[in-house]
Write a structure and sequence with these properties.
single chain; 285 residues; alpha/beta; Four Helix Bundle (Hemerythrin (Met), subunit A); Rossmann fold; 2 domains; seven-stranded mixed sheet; 11 strands; globular
């Protein structure tokens, strides 16, 4: 069961990290229905399976955070029997899932309050949290002009722009990635989601770093929105994915290499503030 879920997680490259974290957490429930000879055997199996799930996608901080929280909670509990440890596992899994699912909504609500009607915004890639924030602001009467990059080579920006275009009061534009610098002088703020923040870097869809760098040169504030579960202080080293060359070009590459990284690292000094479900953190000096 865990191996099957781990394989699914490896293939879930188009899903948000919160979806992956929830799926992984729920998969550990399979251990609570099994019989184990001793408490130590159960705890060891829980740790081993959690490690398998974390290794399935080393780039998702929320997966790392939630798995660590589940295991540490059970290990630190006062459970004296297998049944008690399994009950603790069930309880913490539900708490973790609720926190992840509610965290995105609360982060969006926090961001919506800080968006000002009439702003021109540039965003990159697709973020369900940003989409919710903008939708909430529009429902409260706000109007925006929003530029969305294509986010090549998978063009997830097209998914974002289609859904934004359905909102009344939003003038929506789709940009080729390389044009973002030409439009930044018209922009009031760059609004981004995040894959994670760790060790002084924002990791997000590749192309974020050049946008943030250009925005800094033009004094356009960069604001990041996401669940606090995606922020890791220690014990996590981000590993970027290198995706298939066929996403970039269909014909075979002859005598050259196609590099297709999924993420890049943006120093947090280029970010003005981070908005999460726990509040707003000012980063810029």
């Amino acid at each position: 069961m865990i191996d099957e879920t781990a394989e699914e997680i490896r293939e879930m490259q188009s899903h948000s990290s919160s979806v992956v974290a929830v799926k992984a957490a729920r998969s550990l429930r399979g251990l609570t229905d099994r019989e184990f000879p001793t408490l130590d055997n159960y705890l060891r199996t829980l740790e081993q399976n959690s490690d398998v799930l974390r290794r399935a996608n080393p780039s998702h901080a929320s997966l790392h955070n939630t798995q660590r929280e589940i295991v540490e909670h059970v290990l630190d509990s006062d459970a004296e029997t297998v049944a008690e440890a399994q009950a603790e596992t069930e309880e913490i899994i539900q708490e973790v899932v609720d926190a992840v699912e509610n965290g995105k909504q609360r982060a969006a609500e926090q961001a919506a309050k800080q968006l000002e009607s009439g702003e021109t915004i540039l965003t990159h890639d697709f973020s369900s949290t940003l989409l919710t924030a903008i939708r909430l602001a529009v429902e409260d009467g706000a109007e925006f002009t929003i530029y969305v990059t294509e986010a090549r080579p998978r063009y997830l920006g097209r998914k974002m722009v289609r859904q934004l275009a359905e909102l009344e009061g939003v003038e929506t534009h789709l940009l080729v990635d390389s044009a973002s610098g030409s439009y930044l002088p018209e922009v009031d703020r760059v609004l981004l989601g995040m894959t994670c923040i760790t060790e002084g870097n924002l990791y997000n869809r590749v192309g974020t770093f050049p946008i943030a760098t250009a925005a800094g040169e033009l004094d356009v504030p960069v604001v990041v929105v996401g669940s606090s579960a995606k922020i890791v202080d220690s014990g996590f080293s981000f590993t970027t994915e290198h995706r298939k060359a066929s996403e970039v070009m269909r014909e075979p590459a002859k005598n050259f290499i196609v590099d297709n990284p999924a993420y890049d690292a943006t120093p947090t000094r280029l970010v003005e503030k981070v908005i999460t479900d726990e509040g707003t953190t000012e980063l810029s000096e």
